[in-house]
């Protein structure tokens, strides 16, 4: 295959990858706590193949390489709901949840209680406190969650004194960009990435949830741009193929 076709193919491969990333962002526009993803590409200079008809600086063939996908961990918009079990983290920290695969970290604070009274996420993962899973009693009312995550309730209709139900555990990371996606809104910390206590200005907001930080208009514009670029490369490859076919047909002609 000619170099032009290989270069065009490398561009199409990374455009397809970028389109998958953008499509996933668009699909999670309404996923609470979702963090958008972006693609990272770089130029790859082929060390062997060269195009000798060009000037010396341009003879090494330049391909496109899919380098990585990175997470945009910027805070999404906060939506007030009034639900006492809806929580949002204001600052650089994550809720800690227990999953069948171990501890994970999330910004999705749309919480609820399961049949055992445990505070869980919408996926059913237990929300962890300083002493383990947080459990609410059936008679608990007037649930109040302070900015530091402390949970207090009134026990029964006639109780006048607050009872404590634990303190929600928050985790922060010195290098949050090293976290790995493990679900739509949960992250996994690799073995060499350790959680630490959040900064003093981090707080929990009760009665609110953090929405996805994906900006729909920008993502749709990116999708249109990617489709146009893919079509342009396809057209270039098709023209190159036509030129090659025409050249072969003419070279194959036998003079009369």
SSE diagram, text form:
Elements (H helix, E strand, L loop, with lengths): L2 H25 L9 E14 L9 E12 L6 E3 L6 E4 L3 E6 L2 E5 L5 E2 L5 E2 L5 E4 L2 E2 L6 E6 L4 E6 L6 E6 L2 E2 L8 E2 L4 E3 L14 E4 L1 E3 L5 H37 L4
Antiparallel strand pairs: 1-2, 3-18, 4-17, 5-6, 5-9, 5-14, 6-16, 7-8, 9-10, 11-12, 12-13, 15-16
Helix pairs in contact: 1-2
**Overall outline:** elongated
Strand content: 25-35%
> How many structurally independent domains?
2
Largest sheet: 7 strands, antiparallel
> Could you tell me the number of beta strands?
18
Q: Stretches where pLDDT falls below 50 for ≥5 residues?
A: none
Helix and strand run: HEEEEEEEEEEEEEEEEEEH
Whole-angstrom Rg: 27 Å
Assign a percent range to the helix content: 10-25%
Give the N-terminus to C-terminus distance in angstroms.
32 Å
- Arithmetic mean pLDDT: 86
Number of helices: 2
What structural class results from the helix and strand content? alpha+beta
Q: What report would you give on this structure?
A:
- With 256 residues, this protein is α+β, with helices and mostly antiparallel strands.
- The mean pLDDT is 86.
- The strands form six sheets. Strands 5, 6, 9, 10, 14, 15 and 16 form a seven-stranded antiparallel beta sheet that branches. Strands 11-12-13 form a three-stranded antiparallel beta sheet, with no helix packed on it. The protein has a two-stranded antiparallel sheet with strand order 1-2.
- Strand 5 and strand 6 (102-106) form a beta hairpin.
- 24% of the residues lie in helices and 34% in strands.
């Amino acid at each position: 295959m000619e170099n032009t076709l290989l270069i065009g193919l490398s561009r199409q491969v990374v455009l397809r990858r970028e389109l998958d990333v953008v499509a996933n962002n668009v699909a999670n526009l309404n996923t609470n706590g979702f963090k958008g993803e972006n693609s990272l590409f770089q130029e790859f200079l082929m060390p062997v193949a060269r195009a000798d008809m060009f000037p010396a600086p341009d003879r090494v063939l330049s391909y496109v390489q899919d380098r990585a996908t990175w997470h945009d961990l910027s805070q999404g918009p906060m939506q007030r709901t009034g639900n006492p079990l809806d929580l949002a983290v204001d600052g650089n920290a994550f809720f800690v949840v227990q999953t069948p695969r171990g501890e994970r970290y999330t910004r999705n604070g749309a919480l609820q209680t399961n049949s055992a009274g445990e505070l869980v996420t919408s996926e059913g993962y237990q929300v962890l406190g300083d002493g383990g899973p947080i459990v609410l009693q059936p008679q608990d009312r007037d649930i109040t969650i302070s900015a530091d995550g402390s949970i207090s309730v009134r026990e029964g209709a006639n109780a006048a004194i607050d009872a404590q139900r634990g303190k929600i555990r928050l985790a922060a990371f010195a290098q949050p960009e090293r976290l790995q996606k493990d679900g739509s809104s949960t992250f996994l910390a690799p073995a060499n990435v350790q959680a630490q206590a959040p900064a003093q200005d981090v707080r929990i907001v009760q009665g609110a949830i953090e929405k996805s930080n994906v900006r729909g208009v920008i993502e749709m514009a990116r999708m249109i741009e990617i489709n146009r670029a893919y079509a342009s490369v396809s057209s270039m490859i098709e023209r190159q193929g036509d030129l090659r076919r025409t050249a072969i047909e003419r070279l194959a002609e036998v003079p009369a």
